[in-house]
Amino acid sequence: MPHSDALYSQDDSIATVLEQVARAHRILEMEGHGDMSMGHLSYRDPHGRGLWLKRGNLGLEEVTGRDFILIDFDGRVLEGQGLRHLEWPLHAEIMLARPEVAVVGHSHPFYSTVFGATGAELGPYINHAVWFAHHGVPRFAETSHIITTPQLGKALARTLGPAEAVLMANHGVSFVGRDVREATLAGIFLEKAARAQLALASSGLAHHPPGAEESVEKYDVIYPDRAKNNFWMYFNRKLDAQEARQGGPQPR
Ligand SMILES: [Zn+2]
């Protein structure tokens, strides 16, 4: 289904939101988050039943609005068919810990994953990194294993704390938002920020981040709600243009 700004802003039925979450998967693929059939986003069920999680065995670029299963917070499948991703506890535990979060993403974007394998702190060197100015991007280094148990999910959620994203050392990243728009931008901006900082570090040139206070102020200037809308719509137009050229997403 092509993007429609009117649909996005006026119809918040589950099917319509899942179309948007499906598009978020395809946008994230376009922006460097793809890794075969790994990576998944979830959407908190508005009726309190649990969360809608992308089903397994699909690449991010293949996801449509029909590719979600509804699971409760204990992982029981309530609706839908298909493989339940092993890392479902990552989504469940973050949502339990963060009641304001409606969308959780987990993926293995190349630059963020490489950056996450270092001990460096992500600094506000470029505008994309300023998305994370309030809380920084913590690093979860208790294990490099995938998050397959509620215990590991709780540990990851603890490290995430109030932040918008968390680096998962030698594995990938997770990112969150109060809606699909915020979560998608967090994922995209994290990858751009990590790429920029890796480029800076490998340049050998001297570099200094702006101060923390200035970066928090800057967040308010460059990321008001209308800017989040503009950027979300921009990425939807970019996806539409790419899929029109490629004739995708391909029906299966
Ligand atoms: Zn993973």
Automatic annotation (TrEMBL):
<protein>
    <submittedName>
        <fullName>L-fuculose-phosphate aldolase</fullName>
    </submittedName>
</protein>
<keyword id="KW-0456">Lyase</keyword>
<dbReference type="GO" id="GO:0016832">
    <property type="term" value="F:aldehyde-lyase activity"/>
</dbReference>
<dbReference type="InterPro" id="IPR001303">
    <property type="entry name" value="Aldolase_II/adducin_N"/>
</dbReference>
<dbReference type="InterPro" id="IPR036409">
    <property type="entry name" value="Aldolase_II/adducin_N_sf"/>
</dbReference>
<dbReference type="GO" id="GO:0019323">
    <property type="term" value="P:pentose catabolic process"/>
</dbReference>
<dbReference type="InterPro" id="IPR050197">
    <property type="entry name" value="Aldolase_class_II_sugar_metab"/>
</dbReference>
<dbReference type="GO" id="GO:0046872">
    <property type="term" value="F:metal ion binding"/>
</dbReference>
<keyword id="KW-0479">Metal-binding</keyword>
<dbReference type="Pfam" id="PF00596">
    <property type="entry name" value="Aldolase_II"/>
</dbReference>
<feature type="domain" description="Class II aldolase/adducin N-terminal">
    <location>
        <begin position="19"/>
        <end position="198"/>
    </location>
</feature>
<dbReference type="GO" id="GO:0005829">
    <property type="term" value="C:cytosol"/>
</dbReference>
